[in-house]
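Both lines are retained for reference:
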Amino acid sequence: YKCSQNSDLTKRARKIEDLSKQRDKLPITRYDCNGVLKIAIVINSKTADIQLYHDLIHDRPERISVNQEIRNFIGDRLHQTPAEI
């Protein structure tokens, strides 16, 4: 897994033609932190090898709250794929 703020994960913004669906939100700040979490599970010995690399200490991303109505909407559709929702 890569750090969610790793600059390697930067994607080019895409505009959707339907104006009602455009969000125009600011992108998160990205860093050259090389943050990686590697987990290897060895079933036979019931052990896990965990390696964490992070070259740069940076600010955490801003937390975004999700209201209860949205949580309920998602909870009611756990059996569906995102495309089906």
